[in-house]
Amino acid sequence: MQVHYGLDKEFNIKNPVITTGSFDGVHIGHKTILNRLRKLAKEVNGESVLITFHPHPRKILYPDTAGKELRLINSQSEKIKLLKTTKLDHLVIVEFTLDFSKMTSADFIRNVLAGKLRARKVVVGFNHHFGHNREGDYEYLFELGKYFNFEVEEIPQQDIDNETVSSTKIRKALREGNIQRANAYLDHYYIIKGTLENGDPHLGSNGFPTLRLPVEEDTKLIPPDGIYAIHLISGNIYYRGMIKIRRPGGDITLHAPEIELDLHLFEYKNNLEGQTATIHFHKQMRNESIFTKGFDLLEELQEAREETEELIY
């Protein structure tokens, strides 16, 4: 997958089949669109293209309301990592600014889809809107596609367990600590990617050597405080273990880099400090009550470790 930053370059993409969107989570609905994109690209001997945006448009358009507390399932580097697994040919990351938000849907079609990228086909998800004030929709895109000589296809609404898959529902599941539901919606593990540091020395001296995982971006959504079963991948090495998540002072408004994430890996032998790693979440083993209701943390960690080691994963 080739990653392109911005639109200020010449693109040499063969018969582009294009979709657009934030694609936060790269969930099962997104994968349906991308699978269709790749199939259509193959049919026209072309290449698949996703245009996405950073920062998330809501953070720019509504910084004091809807965007203020928005937390995202993926950081930008996590999203790139997940998109690479879909065999997408090209990812175009557009910086979303107030000026860009004022581009009309007609100008976006004329200047970007038809002009800059020379679209052969455009694929959109169910109920997709774009352009200034979200004025553009499938019907409008379809009509202008005929004028600019590209085809348009809409993907029907996708369901899982009779519930509409959306990034909003995945965020809700994660905020509730319901990792298994979130993973089902995502069709992959919820992940956190970062560079490992030395962990909590107090836990280390009490039989739980840890590594700390600082989070890359303020807007990353972190599950509630508690203990979670995870596995970690660094390079080609796979470790099973647990992660303890704790917000100092119990402050739920803290941004991701301020939250403590301490990893305890089973059968850990290598030096991973300074290494980039990806944490894959499986299940919540203990909730936030272990920090607020007088539990003995070391006892809870020991019991959670025993239970986690019995899991098949």
Question: Would you kindly provide a written description of the structure presented here, covering whatever features stand out?
Answer:
With 313 residues, the chain is α/β, with parallel strands linked by helices. The chain has two domains: 159 residues, 3-Layer(aba) Sandwich (Rossmann fold), CATH 3.40.50; 122 residues, Riboflavin kinase-like (Elongation Factor Tu (Ef-tu), domain 3, Beta Barrel). Helix content is 29%, strand content 26%. The radius of gyration is 22 Å and the shape is elongated. The chain starts with a strand and ends with a helix.
Looking across the biggest beta sheet, what order are the strands in?
9-15-12-13-14-11-10
Distance between the termini: 29 Å
Give the tally of structural domains: 2
CATH architectural name of the largest domain: 3-Layer(aba) Sandwich
Quick one: CATH superfamily of the largest domain?
A: HUPs
Order of helices and strands: EEHEHHEHHEHEEEHHEEHEEEEEH
Low-confidence stretches: none
Strand content: 25-35%
Q: Note the overall shape.
A: elongated
Sketch the major β-sheet.
7 strands, antiparallel
Helix content: 25-40%
What is the alpha-carbon Rg in Å?
A: 22 Å
Fold-level CATH name of the largest domain: Rossmann fold
Number of strands: 15
- Total helices: the number is 10
Task: Report mean pLDDT, rounded to a whole number.
Answer: 91
Structural class: alpha/beta
Q: Output the CATH class name of the largest domain.
A: Alpha Beta
